[in-house]
Design a protein that fits this description.
heterodimer; A: alpha+beta; three-stranded antiparallel beta sheet; 4 helices; B: 168 residues; alpha+beta; four-stranded antiparallel beta sheet
Chain lengths: 126, 168
């Protein structure tokens, strides 16, 4: 390299910087394919609607049956067995006798939901 | 006359200008890059839409009356169920959407404790098996006094309505 013309070093340096910048831009584009994948999957997998639906079904059940009787227990088994078969979710709920809660007679209800990833437990007076 | 020195500098200037313009274009258009991860977002919206439609159909007009969903399921009225579901789904502000569905009902036979499925609405001819369909579900309680003999016979029961929803 000695005795060569040393003009144009500035241009060579700019070329190097441009090449580096392009390299990092390519890296960003390469990574962008994965952006949002886990987020969207996380939201899709989260059983928000399943749990809301189960809650409303249990409240319907209480409106209709109150505490367990023969028909009520069969419905309870329907919910538990079908949840396990079709939603891969372990579901359980209990309904107690009405208690005096701040002057109103309400039933204590416990709800349990677990699908291996998301676990949900609730005690509510209805 | 001008002299012809500095031609290389002119070319460099033009090249740098083009690179800067390209960079600005790429940066501005980045927000519209549609990555594979984004394909889940329409699915997510479709799932929410389907759940909301089922919740609407499961809401009775008055307290103590049957909801439309309960009525269709217990009477086995699949045509009206499909019609109402697709009508609610495909509503948009201007034109109609192009959503299609199939549905089945899962119930439990209490005597043998076996889970059974009943194909309620068959998929139409847009179904190829390759759609990115989403599944939405809704619990329904059936009163045996209104329609005896449906699904698990003469008892009040809870069945699971599952709807497969896709955009064709």
């Amino acid at each position: 390299m000695a005795c060569m013309n040393e003009d144009g070093q500035w241009i060579v340096l700019m070329g190097l910087l441009t090449a580096l910048a392009l390299f990092f831009l390519a890296l960003i584009i390469n990574q962008s394919a994965l952006v949002g994948q886990t987020t969207a999957e996380g939201v899709l997998e989260f059983p928000k609607n399943d749990i809301r639906d189960l809650r409303s079904e249990i409240f319907d059940y209480i409106d209709r049956f109150g505490t367990m009787n023969f028909d009520g227990d069969a419905i309870r088994k329907d919910i538990i067995e079908i949840s396990l078969a079709r939603k891969n979710a372990v579901v359980g709920f209990t309904v107690g006798d009405p208690q005096d809660i701040s002057g109103r007679m309400l039933r204590p209800v416990t709800i349990h939901y677990y699908n291996g990833v998301t676990e949900y437990d609730e005690t509510v007076y209805y | 006359m001008v002299n012809d020195g500095g031609q290389l500098y002119t070319m460099e200037g033009v090249a740098a200008g083009v690179i800067m313009l390209l960079t600005a274009y790429i940066v501005i258009s980045t927000t519209s890059v549609y990555t594979p991860g984004d394909t889940h977002i329409p699915d997510m919206q479709l799932e929410q839409l389907g759940s909301d439609v089922l919740a609407m159909m499961d809401t009775p007009d008055r307290e103590g009356t049957e909801s439309d969903l309960e009525r269709f399921i217990s009477a086995g009225d699949s045509a009206d169920f499909e019609g109402m579901f697709l009508d609610y789904c495909n509503m948009t502000a201007s034109d109609t959407d192009d959503l299609h569905m199939s549905a089945n009902v899962t119930y439990r036979e209490a005597s043998s404790n076996v889970i059974k499925e009943h194909l309620f609405v068959e998929p139409d001819n847009t179904w190829t098996g390759r759609e990115s369909a989403v599944r939405v579900t809704r619990w329904v309680q059936l009163d045996y006094r209104i329609n005896p003999g449906t699904y698990d016979g003469s008892r009040t029961q809870a069945v699971l309505v599952e709807v497969l929803l896709w955009r064709a």
